[in-house]
Amino acid sequence: xxxxxxxxxxxxxxxxxxxxxxSLYLTAKLNELGVDVRAKAVVRxxxxxxxxxxxxxxxxxxxxxxxxGLGPTADDVTREAxxxxxxxxxxxxxxxxxxxxxxxxxxxxPMPSINARQALVPFGAEILPNSQGTAPxxxxxxxxxxxxxxxxxxxxxxxMVDAHVLPRLRRLTGDxxxxxxxxxxxxxxxxxxxxxxxxxxxxxxxxPIPIETTILASGGQIELHLMARxxxxxxxxxxxxxxxxxxxxxxxxxxxxxxxxxxxxxxxDLLRERGLMIAVAESxxxxxxxxxxxxxxxxxxxxxxxxxxxxxxxxxxELGVPASLIAEHGAVSEPVAAAMAAGVAARFGAGVGVGITxxxxxxxxxxxxxxxxxxxxxxxxSSRSHVRTSVFVGDRDSIRGYATLAALDMVRRLLE
Length: 416
Ligand code: ATP
Ligand code: MG
Prior knowledge:
Elements: E1 3-9, H1 22-32, E2 36-43, H2 47-58, E3 63-67, H3 78-86, E4 90-92, H4 94-106, E5 120-122, E6 126-128, E7 137-142, E8 145-150, H5 154-173, E9 176-186, H6 190-201, E10 212-218, E11 221-231, H7 234-251, E12 255-257, H8 263-274, E13 278-282, H9 288-295, E14 303-308, H10 312-319, H11 323-329, H12 334-348, E15 352-358, E16 373-379, E17 385-391, H13 396-415
Helix pairs in contact: 1-5, 2-3, 6-7, 8-13
Bound molecules: adenosine-5'-triphosphate and magnesium ion.
């Protein structure tokens, strides 16, 4: 059992309003068992379309997972399509019918007759109980292939996968696993990261336990993903540890995490270790940095608060930025960012202050200060403070995102 395909069934998934997320959950879980997802498809609620896609996939993969279309309504036809493709008769399963009846009885409602369809089971299928809804999942072993049918709603699918699918799969995959490590970086360009890392990771393919490396960049953050397959034992972890060690050595201070922590968590952990609280004054990011910091559970231990200081008069009145500084240097300038950082720390009684001021665009740029110009300051004391101006390239959303990450990274570097 090493290859899988996923078929997401649902006409709504072919509209711009809904996307298939079940396959992402499934892929993560299958990968942990060393099973590769080779292809996935989204198919409309149509019996022939589903049966056709299934027949194709059956020729290519050991495991086929279908999600959705197990409901009671006429457009839910996954069961019928699978029975058709596998040429298996569908029979009503009395225990399922009873358990659906009990679910309705518990809520004091009579069972609608259409729900009886959910008790139809292709011959030989095993039932996967649904703790969150009426549609049971199905596990079918057929001519050396495994076909799994799961309900569409993620809150029904996920517990079913964990409780009933993964234990069955583990029996078939043995102790083969796929392990992943992620090295996260900020403050360095993708090409520069790759130039430093490539000579190191290019040797990994020839190791006794080969390691695959992928580089991913988004929103200014760079990630190196390392992947190794094999038996679940110490050697696999040791190989990955060694690869991470060799890479972090050449990547230096750009690396902020090797343990899946996002940067706001790393910043929070550093603040906690140093016994410091943070306050943030944001102009062009409009609260995005505060949003990210307070996304971390337990952040009240190290976040005091902040100000969205958009108008100049708010920078002056709420943060104590001298009006003369704004008049002389402009609102988007290093002196103003520095005064915002020191001011918000003083006003909020925080040990660390951050000031962000910039031009997110697409309007408002000038020759001297083009769209994307952002001044960011971090303040810890008058002798420990930094201010920097960057020119980010992108649309408004991207520039605001880059500025937020850059500010988080400056705090991280100051505290490290
Ligand atoms: P139900 O009994 O709720 O009808 P079902 O198995 O028939 O269950 P669907 O009708 O296909 O499932 O989907 C129900 C809801 O689940 C959809 O409206 C959608 O919001 C969500 N859903 C379905 N498939 C997916 C998917 N692949 N990824 C994420 N969400 C999905
Ligand atoms: Mg449905």
